[in-house]
Amino acid sequence: MIIGGGLSGLSLAYFLSKKKMHATILEGSARLGGGIQTIKGANGTPLELGATWFSDMHPSLMLLLDELGLKQYPQYSKGISLFQTKSFEPAQKFSVPEAENPSFRIAGGTQMLISSLAEKLSAEKILLNAKVIAIREQGHQLLLETADGRKLMADQVIVCLPPTTGWFCNWL
User: What is the C-alpha separation between 168 and 134, in angstroms, rounded?
Assistant: First the structure.
């Protein structure tokens, strides 16, 4: 079992599946992606609500994008930028110098990475709205309980959640 359907959990499940090992992902929310979320504007333009760009400092991610056939393009980083902190304040204008190291975006939005990974996995192995509230040893296995009352048995559990959630502190 993998707890967490963000990039780490989905990537782990994908790499395990390539080795003919299949795991079930338990995601506490109604969607996959964790900190990655892209919404589409009225004209279909992707708007990132989470992770946005990456650079050559992320070689493993770049290899994964190539393996999944996802297109990337350079992040424009020179010129004038507008930034508005509050809807009732005017936008501020900034002059942005060209970046020394280029950064990139994923064509169609970062959510494309999440969608591509999910498509490579068996849909019945992804459980949404499955917030794990307890993990207990039961014999030689682990019993996971979800907020909606489901009980699942596992030989192994891997938690793929950011440490800032404090989620796993209940078991320490």
Answer: 9
